[in-house]
Specification:
Elements lengths: L2 H5 L3 E10 L7 E10 L5 H13 L4 E9 L18
Antiparallel strand pairs: 1-2, 1-3
C-alpha cells in the first residue's frame, strides 16, 4: 500500500459481494474484495463491479462496503492514576 496514495485520500476498502451461483440461481455465495479506494464514491470498487457484471456469469445480489483510513492523526487517551517504578 503506497503511503503517497493514502495521503492523497485513498483508504483501505473491503467489500462483501454476495452473488447468485450461475448454475443454481437460488444459491448465494460471498466473495471478499479488498483494495485501496476513495470514499464515498469508491471508483476502484465501481470499476470492479462493472467488470463483474459485464464478464462474469454470477449475477450480483448485494454489496456491503467498509472503509477505514490507515493514515490518521495519533489518538491520545487520558488515563487516571500514576505508576512509579524505582
Amino acid at each position: 500500500m503506497s503511503l503517497e496514495m493514502q495521503l492523497s485520500g485513498y483508504r483501505l476498502t473491503t467489500a462483501e459481494i454476495t452473488y447468485r451461483r450461475p448454475d443454481h440461481l437460488h444459491l448465494l455465495q460471498d466473495y471478499i474484495w479488498q483494495d485501496l479506494d476513495i470514499a464515498p464514491d469508491f471508483p476502484v470498487l465501481r470499476r470492479f463491479l462493472e467488470f463483474w457484471e459485464n464478464n462474469l456469469d454470477g449475477p450480483l445480489h448485494s454489496v456491503r462496503v467498509a472503509s477505514v483510513a490507515l493514515v490518521r492523526p495519533a489518538e491520545f487517551r487520558l488515563i487516571e492514576g500514576q505508576l512509579r517504578l524505582h
